[in-house]
């Protein structure tokens, strides 16, 4: 399975990175093809709502930045993993900016190959995940109709085991 991981954490050794690392290791052991983008290190601008992508652009974004690398991977990805720390009750701004740019590639429908989604979240507060859950459930599982493979947090009991179990079931 081809998996695209979007890591929205600026911390190299934080909880989000730890969960991504566990996933990448487990997926590799199962023979999955995994590509990780650290969106915090990329030059990705916010959506300008110019509608070029849904007019003259025929699905292509007018902006020329690092988002083109993600679009190229997204075109035939089978599973999307969104990973982020929680900032102010939601995912990090860097990952949110990237997701906003999905407008050209995933609206009104996702590529036919994209079937599954999972989310890794990290917070210092175990009760701070509602905003991210709302986006996961509404935007990816609900609107795009992707199969939800779960939301995993640094507060989950045995998060490593849960991630490995999820990967083994893919």
Verbal overview:
This protein has helices spanning 15-29, 67-74, 93-100, 103-106, 130-143, 159-168, and strands at residues 2-7, 33-38, 79-87, 90-91, 116-122, 147-153. It has 170 residues and is α/β, with parallel strands linked by helices. Strands 1, 2, 3, 4, 5 and 6 form a six-stranded mixed β-sheet that branches. A hairpin with a 2-residue loop joins strand 3 and strand 4 (90-91). The longest helix is centred in the first third of the chain and has 15 residues, at 15-29. The chain is globular and about 50 Å long. The termini are close together. The mean pLDDT is 95.
Query: What sort of overall outline do the alpha carbons produce when their principal axes are compared?
Result: globular
For the sheet with most strands, the description reads:
6 strands, mixed
Helix content: 25-40%
Number of separate helices = 6
- Number of β-strand runs: 6
Low-confidence stretches: none
Q: What is the SS-derived class?
A: alpha/beta
The mean pLDDT is 95
End-to-end Cα distance: 8 Å
Strand content: 15-25%
Instruction: List the helices and strands in order.
Output: EHEHEEHHEHEH
Radius of gyration, Cα only, in angstroms?
A: 15 Å
Compile the SSE list and pairings:
Elements: E1 2-7, H1 15-29, E2 33-38, H2 67-74, E3 79-87, E4 90-91, H3 93-100, H4 103-106, E5 116-122, H5 130-143, E6 147-153, H6 159-168
Parallel strand pairs: 1-2, 1-3, 3-5, 5-6
Antiparallel strand pairs: 3-4
Provide the descriptors you would attach to this structure in a database record.
170 residues; alpha/beta; six-stranded mixed beta sheet; 35% helix; globular
């Amino acid at each position: 399975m081809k998996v695209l991981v979007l890591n929205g954490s600026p911390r190299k050794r934080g909880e989000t990175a730890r969960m991504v690392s566990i996933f990448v290791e487990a997926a590799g052991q199962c023979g999955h093809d995994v590509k990780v983008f650290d969106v915090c290190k990329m030059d990705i601008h916010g959506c300008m709502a110019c509608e070029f992508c849904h007019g003259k652009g025929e699905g292509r974004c007018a902006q020329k930045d690092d988002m083109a690398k993600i679009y190229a991977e997204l075109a035939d990805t089978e599973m999307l993993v969104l990973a982020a720390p929680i900032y102010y009750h939601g995912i990090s701004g860097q990952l949110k900016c990237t997701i906003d740019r999905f407008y050209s590639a995933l609206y009104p429908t996702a590529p036919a190959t994209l079937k599954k989604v999972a989310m890794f979240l990290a917070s210092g507060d175990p009760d701070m995940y509602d905003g991210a859950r709302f986006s996961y459930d509404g935007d990816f599982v609900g609107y795009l109709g992707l199969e939800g493979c779960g939301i995993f947090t640094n507060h989950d009991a045995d998060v490593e085991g849960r991630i490995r179990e999820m990967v083994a079931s893919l």
